[in-house]
Amino acid sequence: MRTYTFISAEEANALDYSQVCEESVDKLRFSLDGTQTFVRYEGTQPFSLLGKTEYTEEEVANLVSGAEWTSDELF
Asked: Where are the beta strands (DSSP E) in 1-75?
């Protein structure tokens, strides 16, 4: 089962990507203001993410559908 956690942009730059499913900071989705992102992992919470709140895929989908993550503007 995959688990998700939110981290700051600064944490994303320093993250050990061998501990999460994403390959690099370039593969992450950031909030519209660029300050927050999330990563996913399988199994136990990686050491570099200890203490972070864990979310399910459904919970993350609900959170990132909000105004901080999704723009209604047409380009």
From this structure: 2-8, 36-42
- The structural domains of the chain, with segments of one domain joined by +, span 2-63
Q: Which long-range contacts (CB under 8 A, 24 or more apart) does 22-29 make?
A: 29/64, 29/69
Share of the chain above pLDDT 90, in %: 88
Alpha-carbon distance 42 to 18, whole Å?
Answer: 12
Q: What are the tens digits of pLDDT across the range 2-19?
A: 999 999 999 999 999 999
Distance CA 46, CA 58 (A): 21
pLDDT classification of 59: cutoffs 50, 70, 90: very high
